[in-house]
């Protein structure tokens, strides 16, 4: 009886072939499209002395808002100028030297990220 069960199982495995193994099957889970980076954020120069520039490339943001916080989370008053559609200038010359955070938010696309910079 055990031999018969073994032969049946072995024959089923032989007939099924490679269809039982996910590694060898023809699963099309991912397309061949290239994955692009969206909303690439660059802060420069970092560390900064007078002006920090923020560049947002490959943007899907409609109206990004920038807010500067000190390292403990309190909002800091700085002048923010939009140079172009994807570049901002932050006047940080009046800030004390140290670490700060730039929060970038966009309500429409639900984007929100925070980046660290150093003021010298």
Q: Roughly what fraction of the amino acids lie in strands?
A: 35-45%
Total count of strands = 8
pLDDT < 50 stretches = none
Shape: elongated
Order of helices and strands: HEEEEEEEE
| Structure annotation, total helices | 1
CATH architectural label of the domain at 40-119:
Sandwich
Describe this structure in words.
A four-stranded antiparallel β-sheet has the order 1-2-6-5, with no helix packed on it. A four-stranded antiparallel β-sheet has the order 4-3-7-8, with no helix packed on it. The chain has one helix spanning 2-16, and strands at 40-44, 51-57, 65-70, 75-76, 79-82, 87-91, 98-106, 111-119. It has one helix and eight strands. It starts with a helix and ends with a strand. The chain has 120 residues and is mainly β. It has a domain at 40-119: Immunoglobulin-like (Sandwich). 12% of the residues lie in helices and 39% in strands.
């Amino acid at each position: 009886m055990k031999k018969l069960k073994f032969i049946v199982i072995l024959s089923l495995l032989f007939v099924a072939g490679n269809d039982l193994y996910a590694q060898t099957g023809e699963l099309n889970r991912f397309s061949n499209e290239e994955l692009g980076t969206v909303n690439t954020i660059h802060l420069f120069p970092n560390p900064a002395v007078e002006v920090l520039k923020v560049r947002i490339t490959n943007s899907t943001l409609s109206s990004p808002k920038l807010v500067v916080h000190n390292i403990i989370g309190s909002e800091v008053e700085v002048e923010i100028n939009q140079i172009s559609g994807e570049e901002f200038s932050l006047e940080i010359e009046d800030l004390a030297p140290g670490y700060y955070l730039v929060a970038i938010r966009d309500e429409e696309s639900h984007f929100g990220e925070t980046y660290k910079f150093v003021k010298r």
